[in-house]
Amino acid sequence: MTTPRLARRGRTALALALLALHGPLAGCGGLLDVTNPNSVQEDDLANPALAQALVTSALGQFECAYASYVASTGVLAGEYVNASGWLDINGWGWRGVELYQITGGCPTNRDATGLGAYTPLQQARYLAESAAERIASYPADQVQRRDERLGLLAAYAGYATLLLGEGFCEMAFDQGPLLQPRAVLARAESLFTRAIQHAQAANNAPLRHLATTGRARARLDQGNLAGAAADAEQVPAGFVWNAEYSTVDPRRENRVFNLNRRNRWLSVNPAYADLTVGSAADPRVAITNSNQVGHDGTTRHWFQNKYTTAASPIPMASWREAQLILAEARPAEAVAAINRVRASQGLAALQPAAGDAPLALVLEERRRQLFSEGHRLNDMLRHRLPFPAGNNHKGQAYGPITCMPLPDQERLNNPNIGPRNS
Amino acid sequence: MRGRSTAALLALSVTGALPRPGAPGRAAAQQQPPAATGRITGAVTDAASGAPIEAAQVRVAGTNLGTTTNAQGRFTLPAVPAGTVTLVVRRIGYAEGTRANVAVAAGATATADVALTQATRTLNEVVVTGTPGGAQKRTIGNAVSTVRTDSILAAAPVANLNQVIGQRTPGVMMLPGTGQVGTGSAIRIRGSSSLSLSNEPLIYIDGVRMDGDASRGPGQRGGANVSALNDIHPDDIESLEIIKGPAAATLYGTEASNGVIQIITKRGQSGRPQFDVSARSGASWLWDPEGRTGQRFMPDPARPGQVLGFNVYRNEIENGGGPIFGYGPMQNYSVSARGGTNAVRYFVSGTRNDDVGVVAWNTDVQNALRANLETELSKTLQLRIGTAFIAGQTRLAQGAIAIDPFSNLVWSNPRFLVDGRRGFQSAPPEEWEKVESRYDNDRSTSNAELRWQPLAWMNHRLIAGVDNNAEVNTTLYPQMPEGANHYYGALGLGSKTVNRGTRRLLTLDYAGSANLTRGDVVLTPSVGFQYYRTRSTFITASGQQFPAIPITTVTGGSVRDASETFVENATAGVYAQQQLGWHNRRFVTVALRADANSAFGEDFAAAYYPKLSASWVLHEEPFFRVPGVDELRFRAAWGAAGQQPATFAAARLYNPIVGYQNQPAILPTAFGNPELRPERGEELEVGFDLKLWNRVDVTFTRFDRIVKDAIVNRPLPPSSGFAPITGGTGVQIVNIGRLDAWGNELGLNTRVLGGRRLEWSVGTQLSTMRNRIRDLGGLPFISLGTQAQNREGYSIADLFMLHIRRATIDSVGRVLSATCDGGTGADGLQPGGADVPCAQARQLFLGRSQPTWTFGFDNNVTLWQRLRLYARVEGNGGHKQVNTEIRATHNQSTSEAVLRRDNPILQATRILENDRTGVYEAGFLRLREVSATFDLAENTARRLGVRRASISAGMRNVAMLWTAQHGWSTPRSGMVREPIANMITWDPEVRAVGQAEVGYQTVMPPTASATLAVRLSF
Q1: Do the Cβ atoms of B698 and B747 come closer than 8 Å?
Q2: Residues of A in contact with B730 (CB under 8 A)
Q3: What percentage of chain A reaches a pLDDT higher than 90?
Q4: What pTM does this model have?
Q5: Exposed e or buried b for every residue in A129-145, given b needs 16+ CB within 10 A?
Q6: Which one, of A354, A386, A406, lies nearest residue A184 by Cα?
Q7: If DSSP codes are grouped into helix, strand and coil, which group holds residue B481?
Q8: pLDDT computed for residue B582 by the predictor
Q9: Is the pLDDT score of B32 beyond 60?
Q10: ipTM score
């Protein structure tokens, strides 16, 4: 028989136990606090001191995307051929329907095998545009070189948009509706115009030339030859603006170098071998037979000599490109413009034969001068140059792809666009 | 992170109307200080054979006095209060025994022997998992499976804990890793039930949460890396308890939706020290590697239109090279001692494992020490402490395609015969071993458990512990004399990556319960609080391009980089439970748990998980008189548990990168979701436990589960600007899904014969598991790569592909036309529709990628109580697998069918649905284990100076018996051929380890092994 004292003691003990549980729970908030030194949260970006980081983020992302774009379109356009056994490069080599599944990326290691630039270009565009919005919202007195930064962001957003318009069959922005290339190029043009305005306000000539060259290119793509020529002739001789690369981080490396020279996964198309200008080898497309086979063990490997290290820059815009835009926009001045470009490099002048069409001369000059700079695919698309048919060097049948398709990941997950077969 | 809001506590006990605490008579025994004491000695024996029973628990009913029997089955209980007492004796595998009216005189010794009757299971067995402090099985409404490790080790040739668990419990499936030593398997309990989060159960060891992941160490082909679970040596384990779903895991809260496995290590026992020594050695190998390698082809340069084939495995042997795969020696040694007094008991052990894989540089060495100590600090206070230290060194061989023996075999190419590779895909065999891929770890697990019983009817238990694993993962490509001209390309210049860090899991667990009796009613209220904190910190450094061959440090690289990761997570939860027992055969339990976690979104405070269960031990009802039925219990449980999202999944995050001009920059990576809350699984399980004629043991459980607020990684279109740093598809983590899961679990164990000369028992485990996605929040489907989708109305990761019916080709194999199944059914995605051109066809349902049934069968025969013969068949099925190495073989033009270009279906499939070329039926039944064990007679053993001795020979993965692809005529090696181009898959059991586990490539198949083991007890 339990004594009353024990019964009371038992109930008291039980009640005390229940009450004791409230102690740790009342202070539960602290127990659940965790730190995250890996990341920055959205709210932290309201600090104007982050303005430079926002700029370097956007520009750096574009540079990474640009290298992937140059490599990927280079394979599609026949500047490079697949010399690897990797499945995710095969599709580019035969222009297969696998490209609908590829969004691309900026790899963080030198041995990444995938190609494609859709996602990194979209990220670069988004970063540049959102950074510009954010910087514009900061108090003006708390952001140094405001116009210069806004100009850079607009210019790089313009280039990202330009490449999306040139290389892809269709496009969308910010989960918006489907756009055709002409609308995309018009958007790029407006971004370049904004960049020019900021560059003028900042009195930054190189930035202005970058944006002007970009706008000339966008206008040329849209068929606005007069506007393209007007912009192109404003670019001074010797101007070059490069996308820069570095070996400090694999993500910052020149991917074209890694793919072609370091890993032997891509070979320069042998069709570029032995090109001459005058009677001499054309130094603009100097390629070398490595006397090895590529990663696939069968494809003879040729490497380019334009990007000789992982830190080699890739030109984004240059006077030479502007001159070739001028040549295309004003066919009567094409040969003169071409020869100005040649003369700047000590190359023999072009002496066209009677009946040589100016456009054909310009396109051939662009093929060489702008080799492996991300222009060739666009040239083939806008002038409807023929893509190879039949089987490629590996015996793989070429598929129907010419322009890069809008990836299914965009179609399927963008509420404003439907799937391909819907 | 901001602090979390306080979780709520619900107390279910009613104050002021509590029954009287304590059982009748129990309090009296506690209250009166003993005036005098005596002793009780005796023996516990097997009622049938008279053999002594070792390690039986003997307790004086109504007191804390207890002990365990020694090797001779004898026990001594000192300081028993004078008077008449009842002894209660328990031993796993036997029904509980009692000896009443034992008269103890002051200063004298009473003798009381107890005979126990064998029983395959017992309802009075105490389980600790899912209960606050332990409870008898009879009182629990959900199924709790107990795995006795020693009984498995005594018969089955198992090498690690993954293999001990295996598929021996209905509903539990071990998805195999690679055939490499050191690697492990993923565990699935009741299949998969999360679309995006982990499907792995929680693992505890002695009440402390531990890391049991199967993906540690440097990345390997197929994702099957080193298993953290296999750090625990089976010889140290007393038992495993498995609870399977939300109905049972409520008390574990917001991370337990996939079930819980509790590892209970061995404890000391009072009595003279007992020493156990075991040694096991053997070898592993791959069945028929030459046959399974098959042929690879190239165009015959001498005969246009013809092809040349070769088998690289055979070719290497014929040209003086070794066989690629050999016999990998395995060794395991274990020494343990246990003993003590009634006041202090100990268990200590040391183990060593030294295995070599089928390639000589795949090695796994592990040394471990463990010590468990129990002491009675006072009559009411007991302390248990345990600690273990494990040091492991594992070297792996499948870190990359170029260095992987299996990849080099599968993708061999006769075109490569001329360039030094001798036909292998990337490099000749002597180069593979030069690259090192290592996992080294120093791990310690420690726990302290304090049990306080201030009153006879009140218990408190406090557990604190930590699992700390320091890892070093290293990948080294030494500089080769050929430099960048080496087979490994630029890696031939040298490269080293070191990833070093620590994973720590901290546990704090309090449970308090009371036992309140009033007549035939027993109320057991319980409350508890649990806190878990995990932290993972890693630093990775790499250096590339060494200046000279001897240099192999990161500093030696001329190009270096580094990165760091840091992840923390914390969970706090409280619960209250009330159990009502009536006549000790009808039980009802209600409980409620509340959890808060650091990963919950800002707008979500806490998760609440209720539970209701009932158990009715029907055969103990006075009215129950069914001949042959020894035990019958019905049980039912309904409960909820959760699964939390990843830490910081709710936040919009930007991660650091190196930006323009190498300046600091950030990149948007996580889209964020402030409303993010945990997945919630609600499950109803019903079942029964039945024992017939004391021979047949049947357990059956049916479960139905609903997962609400299923977390879905909703893909973001890249135009949103958010994506992982390396590219691909960004996601927003949202709670938009609902998933149903259901299944049946049947366990049938039969003691067919039980004589002294012949004992024969068989066991069967059969389970089915299905799931269906009910709601994807408006998304039509979520693509999982090119092969599988999560789609409403279908199961997780079902396969959807074009169904090509016919195709026509020209003389060179170009596809001229392709006709597909246009689909039928309400959604148009079921096969069986009209013909349509494939360009207009949709991808139709092809099959499930996750098993829908598992099966196991054990056969045990014991002759003259000395020779035990054991065999086990195991398998699963109902699904298909996608072997993408077949697709890659076609792509590199080394399959005969691709070269001949005369198979229209293949030609069309490769253009339209390339992954379809590697799809096969994945169901299988395998003769998993066989063994013969001889136990020395006791007098023979004593002459040898030991108390007990046994020797065992066994084999594992002996032969494939049946495959869904080929039926009973399947090759015994396990090889299956896919139907389109007759290409080989080495083993249908192979699968990738990962979340969706869809599609795999060059995963080394399971190996066979033979072992010889000797076990001695002193």
Answers
A1: yes
A2: 119
A3: 71
A4: 0.82
A5: bbbbebbeebeeeebee
A6: A406
A7: coil
A8: 94
A9: no
A10: 0.88
